[in-house]
Amino acid sequence: MQFSKWITLGFGALCLIAVATVLRAGHLFYMAGILLSLPVVSYILGWYSVKGITITRMLPATTWEGETAEISYVVHNNSRAPRYFLYVKERWPAWIDPGDGEPPLFNLAAQDSTTITVPVRFHSRGVYSPKSINVVALDPLGVFAFNRSVPCNQELVVYPSPEAGVPIPEGGAERFGWQAFVTSALRGSSVEPDGVRDYAPGDPLKRIHWRQTARTGRLNVIEFCETVAVNVVVVIDALAGSERGASSSTTLDQCARIAAAVLMEASRQGASVRIVTGNGADVDHAWTDSGVGKGEESLLAAMDTLARLQSSGILAPSQLLSEAVGPLSRGTSLLVLTSAVDRDLPRAIARYSGAAVQSVVVYVDTDQGDTLESTNYLKSIAGVGASAYIQVT
User: Fold this and answer.
1) Concatenated DSSP letters for 162-223?
2) What is the C-alpha separation between 38 and 23, in angstroms, rounded?
3) pLDDT, tens digit, for every residue of 46-84?
4) What is the band of 374 on the pLDDT scale with cuts at 50, 70, 90?
5) Domain 170-187+227-392 maps to which CATH number in 3.40.50.410, 3.40.30.10, 3.30.430.20, 3.40.50.620?
6) In CATH, which superfamily holds the domain spanning 53-159?
7) What would the pLDDT profile of 189-210 be if each residue is shown by its tens digit?
8) Dihedral Cα 285, 288, 293, 298, nearest 10 deg
């Protein structure tokens, strides 16, 4: 487009010069000079237009994978001269899609502000923290474009989707519904009395309520219900090299979605939530621990950890359990999400079996994974009293 404008200007000036030469019309030479000077004047105006511009970026309070949200830019003209043909340009990562449309052009009056809103879609979880964003000014002829970087220190955190794309884990040869799996992950090991009912064949004799039986003359038993876990601890395998898959369908992304769904359901039921994962190659900060807490603030802290999750850790899940998680109190539910075979994991989980801790392990694999190896791995985990599932992405 710009090249064609240069051709048009040059051809027009050349035609004026040719006509002026043939007709001996000197004033046409002045017109040709004016035509050739237009790009220079336009360049100066475009260069001046990016001066005195400030931008404030407005981000949504929370953003989730798979959603479309609006990001707004408040652009202010600090000078006493108007600004024309402006637009805001930001370099988005591949997992953020601003759409195919061109950035909208806008004008600014002297010492005036305007708000530009851009809808963007988040294809994956992650953290986006640009150093700067650009305001671009076009000259009146649209031949030149002038960029000015405006510092930006805002961080955009996209949480993993707790619903869309969450898989249905499989246990052995059986298939369990997602709700059944979440219930298994959240279930504590303690029981509480939940009333008295008539005896039914098969009820254990130790549950007979003798006082009620003596009073009514009929066998009555105590009804028990399992309590929801007081605390849910999620451990995610982020060992370097363990992640498989591509784009937003990696095994680590799938682990993040499962963790998000379980943590949200646990928080909804009033349980405390905590997430522990590998943090990188720094030995002094080898893991991230969101801490134990209830409510929305603790849940968002855990979601923030999931958004920043990367397969760059130096600790395997068994090491995270021993070094970062440590002893767990009675009634805690432990969920381990992994995508690699850790031979020490069964032994690390075994110590929780006798402590009234409900342990659940989900092994996330790809279609190209070794089915026999993963099946044997899950059997070894089930052998120490944990519930073991496999999920193929």
Assistant:
1) SSTT----EETTEE--HHHHHHHHHEEEEEEEEEEEE--TT--GGGB-HHHHHHHSS-EEEE
2) 24
3) 888 888 888 999 998 889 998 999 999 999 999 888 888
4) confident
5) 3.40.50.410
6) Immunoglobulins (2.60.40.10)
7) 445 555 788 888 777 777 788 8
8) 120
